[in-house]
């Protein structure tokens, strides 16, 4: 089950990467609305997101549905870390505390899997 | 106020539909990769994700970011409900406590973001007033 949980967590990380790419793409200027969506960055990000959903399906082979969305909450942690590294976004004390609490929640829920 | 309530209800309907995507993911995972049933359930999942992406943008126009993201965390509770009702999974006290702790953590994360973003908005308004 740990192997499948790791696949699911990898999917969440990949999905978080795609969010960062989308954010980067949103900061650029485009000549028209179509170019906003049909450009390599945005299309690449959605392709990556597609791959992330595949990881999710693979993970659910053994991961209980009652735990899946809790594991996917790690996305908040990845987005915060990647946002800080690639977008220079600040992590406030409150946000940092929230991220630690999310980790604690995931650990608690994981302990409840029998 | 009435309008806010309407969008709050819409928000939770969207979250409910989004959480149903995890049922499709779980169901697809029970079939052989690329079998007909796998493709059907994975296809429904992709459709739900597409619908969610569009609907979420609409809700964001009417409700604050903190409300939308903090409420989105209830998908953890829906996961417990679907797991129990459809896949006969056990709901243990630790799972429920863990889900509640995650929801509280998500609220703090989003509230922390709001705090960081709020001063920059105020500054922009002050600049505009100058």
Q: Please, could you describe this protein's structure?
A:
- The complex is a heterodimer of chains A (114) and B (130).
- Helix content of chain A is 78%, strand content 0%.
- Chain A has one domain (2-111).
- Chain A is an all-alpha fold and 114 residues long.
- Chain B has helices at 2-29, 36-60, 65-72, 75-87, 93-129.
- Chain B starts with a helix and ends with a helix.
- What gross morphology of chain B would you assign? globular
Q: How many helices of chain A?
A: 6
Q: Biggest protein-protein interface?
A: A-B, 46 and 50 residues
Strand content of chain A is: under 5%
Q: First CA to last CA of chain B: what distance?
A: 33 Å
Helix and strand element order of chain A: HHHHHH
- Please count the helical segments of chain B: 5
Number of domains of chain B: 1
Order of helices and strands of chain B: HHHHH
User: What distance lies between the first and last C-alpha atoms of chain A, to the nearest angstrom?
Assistant: 11 Å
Please report which band the strand proportion of chain B falls in: under 5%, 5-15%, 15-25%, 25-35%, 35-45% or over 45%.
Answer: under 5%
**Overall average pLDDT of chain B:** 87
- Tell me the radius of gyration of chain A: 16 Å
The major beta sheet of chain A can be summarized as: none
């Amino acid at each position: 089950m740990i192997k499948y949980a790791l696949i699911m967590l990898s999917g969440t990380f990949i999905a978080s990467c795609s969010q960062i790419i989308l954010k980067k793409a949103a900061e650029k200027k485009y000549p028209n609305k179509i170019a906003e969506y049909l450009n390599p960055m945005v299309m690449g990000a959605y392709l990556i997101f597609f791959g992330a959903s595949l990881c999710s399906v693979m993970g659910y082979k053994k991961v209980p549905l009652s735990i899946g969305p809790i594991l996917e909450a790690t996305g908040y942690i990845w987005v915060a870390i990647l946002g800080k590294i690639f977008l220079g976004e600040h992590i406030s004390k409150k946000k940092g505390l929230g991220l630690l609490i999310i980790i604690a929640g995931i650990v608690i829920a994981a302990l409840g899997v029998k | 106020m009435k309008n806010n309530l309407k969008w709050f209800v819409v928000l939770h309907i969207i979250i409910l539909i989004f959480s149903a995507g995890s049922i499709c993911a779980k169901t697809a995972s029970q079939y052989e990769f690329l079998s007909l049933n796998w493709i059907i359930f994975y296809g429904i999942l992709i459709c739900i994700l597409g619908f969610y992406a569009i609907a979420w943008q609409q809700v964001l126009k009417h409700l604050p970011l903190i409300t939308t993201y903090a409420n989105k965390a209830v998908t953890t509770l829906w996961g417990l409900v679907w797991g129990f009702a459809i896949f006969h999974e056990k709901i243990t006290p630790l799972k429920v406590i863990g889900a509640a702790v995650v929801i509280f953590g998500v609220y703090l994360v989003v509230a922390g973001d709001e705090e960081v973003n709020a001063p920059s908005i105020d500054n922009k308004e002050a600049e505009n007033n100058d």
